[in-house]
Fold this protein.
Amino acid sequence: MAGVASFQFVEALGIDSLPDPVAGIINQITLKSGYAWKAGYSAYDSLQFEEEPIESDHGLYFNSTLRGFVPDAAAINTLFSEMKGRWFILKITDNDGLIRIVGTLDQPLQFSSHLDTETASGQKGHSYAFKGIQKNKAPIYTI
């Protein structure tokens, strides 16, 4: 089944160790004391993850983006203001239960958002994105 079911995020500076993938798999991530994975929130069926391959003079890289939408609320305004411009690592779970780690310590994803007063579905809310350029495709995470 296609699509993103959920995601978690942690600020990149909160990660103690994130090993390089072996055969496209990561099986352990250690967070620093005081940090935890936070559950991402989105309106139903609004999450979209893309990993666009880009050829350059320096080789192949991937433009990775997770997009979502949340209805407007004071708590969301506060949270998004705190997150704006910060760097994150994501744990994305697809609808088949496959988990991918997006971002690395030297190539984290930057958060951005903007308020839409009316979307195609008629809702007022915030479109947001975590974006970054990665040297490799997002590895699978096994616990």
About this structure: The chain has a mean pLDDT of 92. Residues 4-141 form one domain. The two ends are 22 Å apart (CA to CA). The chain is about 5% helix and 50% strand.
